[in-house]
Amino acid sequence: MRIPGMPQSPQPLSGAVAASITRVHAAAWSEAAVLARESGCRFVALWGTDHRERDGAFSVLAAYATAQGLCVIELPVAATEAAYPDLAGVFPAANRMQRSARDLLGLMPKDDAVDTRAWLRHGAWREDEFPLRRDFARAAPLEPAPDSYAFVRVEGDGVHEIAVGPIHAGIIEPGHFRFSVVGEKVLRLEAHLGYVHKGIDKRFEDFTLEDGYRLAGRVSGDSTVAYAWAYAQAAESVLDVRPPARALWLRALMLERERVANHLGDLGALGNDGGFGFALAQFMRLKEDWLRANDAAFGHRFMMDRIIPGGVDSEPDRAHLEGLVRQAREVLEEVHAMRRIFDEHSGLQDRFLTAGHVAPLLAHELGLTGLAGRASGQAHDLRADLPTTPYDVLKVKKVVYQGGDVAARVNARFEEINESMRLIVALVEAMPGGDVRAELAQARDGAFGVGWIEGWRGAVLVALEAGAGGRIRRCHAHDPSWHNWPLIEHAVMGNIVPDFPLINKSFNLSYSGVDC
Amino acid sequence: MIPILLKILKTGVVSEKPPRANEEWRVRAATIQREILAILGRALVIRQVDAGSCNGCEIELNALNNPYYNLEGMGIKFAASPRHADMLLVTGPVSRNMEQALRIAYEAMPDPKLVVAVGDCGRDGGIFGTGYATCGGVANVIPVDVVVPGCPPPPTAILQGILTAIAARAA
Q1: What's the first-to-final CA gap in chain A, in angstroms?
Q2: CB atoms A198 and B154 under 8 Å
């Protein structure tokens, strides 16, 4: 697969994901972005790597989704200059990714108009230190400095700011939101994230290709299955191994169970934020039953560390698998009853309808992705668009709404639960027999592979480069929340401040996934 | 209204018995005296701070409010401000970017302060360890009374950790 119109020939990547890598020079780097935009490809991610030991230069990489698969474009960046052509002018979603690449690696986009504010670096390391460079060596931390960030100021009669975070009022992840409001109406919201930056990309260097799945599974705990599967795909690509069919079916079973668990929790929380506590109690009860069944069948409530490179580490016995089918049918019935109650509750619908609206055109322009994207008319779902085993035989039905408001995101969750329950039953009933684990081979030093999995929130990407002796040289895990956080800022414009929690919850984005 | 009432009636009460305290998780001698506990009973207010978690622990903390664990039924509730809290419940390997916010929240609490570190990361940094971006365990930043191990610890374990912290000193 290639970006339509690009003259360079891509080098195909082995593994489950249809993907290629193309090494280009600076002019072709910019041209690729423009061609991608013009031909309807989507921008997926941007990250950088220190390749000075290998070829005396850094690399900056961008991934695009084409109709045939994933195209990775790699541009060598001279160590002396450490600058590359900006992509944010073509794909606005690249802005925060470029700023992160600057904070972690010191690579700057070449454009005077780019946003130069630090993103992940709040003051724990100096401006001229770059953690992802191989010669980085900060042993002692800096004294914590007061956090200052140049928010965009909105001025005018009666405009005031509300600063929220990093510690929020509930049991949620930390981040800072700066609202500019007139009365109760939000004129502008600007988010400042990076508070839970744990240096995961650097930490991957301490892991082997074989055991990196454990760290990948903790980039965003609510999507541990999606990350572990994406990591396993990338590792299987560089290790050149094919997991047995049964393992892939079990992985899909876990992925669909993770999707349902999160949707159940979100529907409860959305009902609660709409002032309907009954919904929270009911959906949290269903979610608890669901997590307990995960524990019984897979030995972990979130199914953490069950997907490993080469397959899965254990499998449920027949009785447990049958139990999962029974449970899927029972819970679906309860979800249907809850949906009728939601639909007939005028107070709730009054809160949901028109709140946090993202029009399909805006969603397309700014690259809204995953579940939230599908609720704004962006009909992309890897399970249906580029199905790998077992989705190729299951024929996933994409759930797409045009509404773009909280109501659409609620309905999308209800519909996706429907489809996932069908998939869970089909996965158990038609699951092939055989082994669940393949032997791993040795990876060539420098081998590169990707994994790309449609998690409950959207597509998770893992790009992996092998080092010497079976170690990881570079692993970049990318969360769909990167694209969707900036859209929340648009979604709340013109809404009232008290609707922010509801709107925010309807996206339910990961902080840890983007802060990493 | 009728479908809602029927659903409530059909669901019934699903709450389960709470676990007992686990003295092995105590890392610091109890600071709250028996007499104070007698007065406070189990009316406990908790401020939770995610200081760098992967959000797995937050899912389990939220589960504590589901009807099975029925935390509020035991007189324990989560508050929005540390100034209203008796206990700080901290998750994550304490990212450098959250270190200062965590200290401020701790200092804002009235004495006597109880701190429960939740999860393997809260214990010692867990899989993320200590590095340029992480401080490691919560005890590297603020004093900790009880540590609940697990990745993530299930709700019963977290509840057990909370109850351990408020149990009177065993001796």
Answers
A1: 30
A2: no
Residues 82-121, chain B, touching A (beta carbon < 8 A): 92-93, 95-101, 105
CATH label, A200-483+496-504, candidates 3.40.50.2000, 3.40.250.10, 1.10.645.10, 2.10.70.10: 1.10.645.10
The count of other CB atoms within 10 Å of the CB of residue A242 is: 15
Which of B4, B67, B128 faces A203 most closely, judged by CB atoms?
B128
CATH class, A11-110 region: alpha beta
Cβ–Cβ under 8 Å, residues A422 and A416: no
> Which amino acid makes up residue A312?
V
**What tokens does A362 get?**
């805006």
A138 in contact with B, Cβ within 8 Å: yes
Query: Is B132 close to A136, i.e. CB distance below 8 A?
Result: yes
ipTM: 0.94
**Which residues, including other chains, have CB under 8 Å from residue A143's CB and lie 6 or more apart?**
none
B129 domain residue, yes or no: yes
Domain ranges, residue B137: 33-166
Q: Comparing C-alpha atoms, which of A353, A387, A352, A380 is closest to residue A364?
A: A380
- Comparing alpha-carbon positions, the chain B residue that sits nearest to A126 is B132
Q: How far is CA A318 from CA A101, A404, A424, A435, in A?
A: 47, 41, 14, 15
What is the least distance, in Å, from the CA of A25 to any CA of chain B?
33
| Tens-digit pLDDT string for chain A (516 aa) | 899 999 889 999 999 999 999 999 999 999 999 999 999 999 999 999 999 998 899 999 999 999 999 999 999 999 999 999 999 999 999 999 999 999 999 999 998 788 889 999 998 898 899 999 999 987 667 776 666 899 999 999 999 999 998 999 899 999 999 999 999 999 999 999 999 999 999 999 999 999 999 999 999 999 999 999 999 999 999 999 999 999 999 999 999 999 999 999 999 999 999 999 999 999 999 999 999 999 999 999 999 999 999 999 989 999 999 999 999 999 999 999 999 999 999 999 999 999 999 999 999 999 999 999 999 999 999 999 999 999 999 999 999 999 999 999 999 999 999 999 999 999 999 999 999 999 998 889 999 999 999 999 999 999 999 999 999 999 999 999 999 999 999 999 999 999 999 999 999 999 999 999
- Asked if A457 and A371 touch (Cβ cutoff 8 Å), the reply is yes
